[in-house]
Amino acid sequence: MKYFLLSLLAVCLLPFQGICQTSSFNGGWSFALSDASGHPNAKMEAIHIPHTYNLDAYKTKDYYRGYAVYEKQFTIDKAEAGRLHYLHFEGVNSKAQVFLNDQLLGAHQGGYTAFNIALDKALKFGATNRLKVVVNNENKNLAPLSGDFTIFGGIYRDVWMVSKAKTHFDLDQLGGWGGIIRTPKVSASQASLSFEGKINSAQSQNLKMEVVLTAPDGSKVMAKTFKKYFHKGTKSWHVEMPTVNKPQLWSPDSPLLYHLTATLKDRHGRTLDTFSHQVGFRWFAINAQNQFELNGAPLKLIGASRHQDKAPYGIAVSDEQHFADMKMIKDMGGNFTRLAHYPQDPAVLDACDRLGIIVWQEIPLVDIMSKNEAFTSSATNMLKEMIEQYRNNPSIAIWGLMNEACIQVKYRIKKKEPRDLFCLWTAKFGKSLNKLAKEEDPSRLTAMAFNEDINYDRYGMSGIADITGWNLYPGWYGGQLKGFEHFIAEQHRLFPHRALFISEFGAGSDARIHANNPQKFDFSMEYQQKYLEHYLKVIQNTDYIMGGSVWNLADFSSASRQESMVHINNKGLVHLDHTPKDVYYFLQACLVKDRPIVHIATDDWANRTQVTEGDRAKIEVKVYTNQNHLSLFVNGIDHGERTVRNHIARWKMQNKSGVYQLIAAKNRTMDVATLSLNNIPAKLKKGAPVNIHINAGSSVIYTDHAKTTWFADRAYSEGGWGFIGGEHFKQGDRNGTVATIKDTDEQPLFQTARIGDFSYKFDVAPGTYQLALNFADLSNWGPQSAYLLNNQQGQQTKVGAIDVEINGKVVLKNFTPAQVVGGHRALVKKLLIQNDQQQLNIKITGSNGQAFLNGLSLISK
Ligand code: GCB
Ligand code: CA
């Protein structure tokens, strides 16, 4: 095992005053999964922080939840003796115990806030120190107890070594840096400014504090020195700065930042410590119309929510990546982000300050609470830590307290009455958190977010915080798109004085899935567009809606999710690799005002292989734009000007196979795209080779990993091919299942099926063909499904048994996929067929229970 010493650190820790007191401590660590005492389970490996030990969450829902150990050796120069040393951990998920030279120095609970560990009790100077951090991500009695995201374990944010004089800005409490900047009264003409230093004085003495404010351009605005006699110990020193006249205000359009530096000096004027932070002068409130007002003017808050992970790194991402994500929200024209569901890296908040993004940041109270004392007290502490650590960031306007706090209750508490009691208790807990947030930081608004359930009104929860957030998904998980505006209108009618925020709205999409006729929950790129086009318009046009936050900026890791992309929530405006989906530009077209936006929305589906009636494909080209009119040129031919509605210009056309260059333009603003059409006429050419792949029971076109296109299920027509009879397998009003199908990477192929007694007919010439039948028994299909199978536990489950006839000849009898491979597992049955007729008729019937077929392909041999 090899340890490296951060040479930078050694340089920094030479005796100094005021310079380089804080340096990163990310290199030279080693790591292994461990037992509870931190004894490694395997050979330690060299790693660099940020680090997570849960990349398994991309592969299994049962990702590792447990202990791990991180170690690092370091030395500190003898000349450093006499100073104090701390480690500042920006975030360790979820629990940490820190040992130095085998002595436990401190512990922290909660994966999303920073903490400081004082080292000197065990620190050796001029000799090797052994640091050990034992981490655990099981979240016993620790928020979040549940939630639609992965609890990646590890030391996943920066670690800092801090060296301080014995008298310094306090680092011991709540993970902060010992300074609070307040701007309690700001107007266009004047701003008040105060600084509170929490000072740890090594002895009783006279101290000086010099506070300097610099303007956004770096020039000095004011400097003031304060003096005070301090008794030994920790105390706050609150100083008022002179009024700032005509402050340059901070806003999303103009995120101007001042800087405050407080320098602590001894009576001889020698520097002891400094504290420095950006300052934004702005004021905000909720006005009489329940709108958000910034600097005296209403401002609709629109943007995206953000999780902190990025594939394939989990949550071990760099500050640069954090910045890049926030920049994407900014470039989209967003003025808002909801940092859901937990406080994020300090680099995120710094980015929001610098870019001008108004922030709702929250503690990770998600899905369900616990009455357990350990849970409530750690959650309360998280709120205190969040406020202490981030209160100086001017971009933060809202502290979030809870998200969908009763959504899991019905699964965990079966009887209705105790359920009600539990939620009433949750409301009480929410009230106490709201009160605490107001006491700690009266300058911010508070918010809670709820799923679509009016019981929150009944429990008195939806009225606790300043802002009532609704996470609304009508038209996705269920219901219709217009259910959205109906729900929120009803809330406004019932509670006309509430500030209503659409804290989530979104739909999943998968780059492999496309639809000409997009349907709710089909995971097509096109349905997500339809959904967001609908929601955003309502949010923008409804005055009483304070704002909205798309769920989510990016596709994110949620190990337990089973949908088209297993372990991934794909509601992102950008893909897993954070490249934009077309719909990102819809948001941009709606939100950007200061520059022209034109985006031809064909990137997501630039290569289209699809079945066409004649030899032409019916195409609708959508262009997202903030212009009123646009023209489209296809291979240089003018297709006319269109009036833009809801930031969309549309052209309908019918095109032959080929590659087309599209140009959408208004004056000099234009976008260029390439669209390639590969039309497959529905009528088969007699004698031509056949190569048809059908996604049975599905309305979408799916491109698999081999780049083969599977067509949507279609009814047979003369001279062509398709199904006769049967129906789509449905769960509730959704097509297919979301359950994971094992033994395949092609979930969308196997998650849908045609069921009943049906056939597929192909009007093909005599010859040799390979027919492949895709099966996955999706569930118990109801009482008719009669085939009984003993599973491993000896219980009997019902599965479908199928007869297959080709041109009247039985080829499979009593074929029972679940008996061969098990339920919810993929099975591909290939048959070589000698066809002597002018057609192939594949008849599928249930020999025992209901027949099903998840997909089929027919290829000439
Ligand atoms: C919600 C949750 C969020 C989920 C989201 C979804 O309401 O607050 O954590 O990820 O729905 O995608 O279902
Ligand atoms: Ca960081």
Automatic annotation (TrEMBL):
<comment type="similarity">
    <text>Belongs to the glycosyl hydrolase 2 family.</text>
</comment>
<dbReference type="InterPro" id="IPR008979">
    <property type="entry name" value="Galactose-bd-like_sf"/>
</dbReference>
<dbReference type="InterPro" id="IPR021720">
    <property type="entry name" value="Malectin_dom"/>
</dbReference>
<keyword id="KW-0614">Plasmid</keyword>
<protein>
    <submittedName>
        <fullName>Beta-galactosidase</fullName>
    </submittedName>
</protein>
<dbReference type="InterPro" id="IPR036156">
    <property type="entry name" value="Beta-gal/glucu_dom_sf"/>
</dbReference>
<dbReference type="InterPro" id="IPR006104">
    <property type="entry name" value="Glyco_hydro_2_N"/>
</dbReference>
<dbReference type="Pfam" id="PF11721">
    <property type="entry name" value="Malectin"/>
</dbReference>
<keyword id="KW-0326">Glycosidase</keyword>
<keyword id="KW-0378">Hydrolase</keyword>
<dbReference type="InterPro" id="IPR017853">
    <property type="entry name" value="GH"/>
</dbReference>
<feature type="domain" description="Glycoside hydrolase family 2 immunoglobulin-like beta-sandwich">
    <location>
        <begin position="183"/>
        <end position="282"/>
    </location>
</feature>
<dbReference type="InterPro" id="IPR051913">
    <property type="entry name" value="GH2_Domain-Containing"/>
</dbReference>
<dbReference type="Pfam" id="PF02836">
    <property type="entry name" value="Glyco_hydro_2_C"/>
</dbReference>
<feature type="signal peptide">
    <location>
        <begin position="1"/>
        <end position="20"/>
    </location>
</feature>
<feature type="domain" description="Malectin">
    <location>
        <begin position="691"/>
        <end position="846"/>
    </location>
</feature>
<dbReference type="InterPro" id="IPR013783">
    <property type="entry name" value="Ig-like_fold"/>
</dbReference>
<dbReference type="Pfam" id="PF02837">
    <property type="entry name" value="Glyco_hydro_2_N"/>
</dbReference>
<dbReference type="InterPro" id="IPR006101">
    <property type="entry name" value="Glyco_hydro_2"/>
</dbReference>
<dbReference type="InterPro" id="IPR006103">
    <property type="entry name" value="Glyco_hydro_2_cat"/>
</dbReference>
<feature type="domain" description="Glycosyl hydrolases family 2 sugar binding">
    <location>
        <begin position="63"/>
        <end position="163"/>
    </location>
</feature>
<feature type="domain" description="Glycoside hydrolase family 2 catalytic">
    <location>
        <begin position="289"/>
        <end position="583"/>
    </location>
</feature>
<keyword id="KW-0732">Signal</keyword>
<dbReference type="InterPro" id="IPR006102">
    <property type="entry name" value="Ig-like_GH2"/>
</dbReference>
<dbReference type="Pfam" id="PF00703">
    <property type="entry name" value="Glyco_hydro_2"/>
</dbReference>
